[in-house]
Model the fold of this input.
Amino acid sequence: MHPAPGHYTQTLVNAVMFHCKDQLSGINGVTRPGIVHRIDMDTTGSLLICKNDYSHQVMANQLKEHSITRKYHAIVHGNLRADTQTINAAIGRHPTDRKKMSTHAPNGRTAITHCRVLERFGNYTYVECSLETGRTHQIRVHMSSIGHPILGDNVYGPAKCPYKLQGQTLHAKILGIIHPVTGEYMEFDAPLPEYFQNLLELFRKQVHG
Done:
C-alpha cells in the first residue's frame, strides 16, 4: 500500500503519486497521501484515495461513523454452520507476535464483522464479509478465530496452501460512499481477480460436475 521499513518502492502510493503528481490530500503525511483506508498486501479490490484535504476529512468521518459500505468476498477453510453470522470480538496487537493481530489481545478494540455464505464447496466456503468496523487484519483474524481462516492466508491460516494463488482469497468487492460534494450515494463493484474466479470455477466443477 505505502512505503514502509524494508519496502520503500513499488507501492500503491508510489504509483498514485506518479499519476496524480501534487493532487493528493496531505492529511496522512508524505508516506500515505490521500489514503483513507488500507487493504493488506495480498488482498485485492477497491480502495478509497482522496485528492484534497476536504474530501479526505469527509471520507474519514464517514469511515468513523460506519456509513461507508465495505463488502469483501473470501474463500475460507471448512464449512460454516450458519448461513449468516456476526462476529463481535475485539482485536488488538498479538501479545507475543507483534506482526500479528489477535482476538485475545489485552487492549483490543471493538471489531464487528457480518458474514454471509454465498456458496458451499464441502471443505471450503465462499462468503461475503461486511465490515462494521475497520481494524487491522479484521476479516482475516475474525474468520480464523471461528476456525475458518481464509484460503491462502499463511499468517492466520495453514502455512501451506494446496492451490497456486497470487495472494490470499480476500477481495474488497463492494465500496459504497456518499460523495463529499454532491451528497450522492455511489457504489463501486470491483470484479474478482482471475485467479480467484478460476478457483471458484474449479470448486463448482468439483461439487456440481
Residues 1-9, 27-33 have pLDDT under 50 and may be disordered.
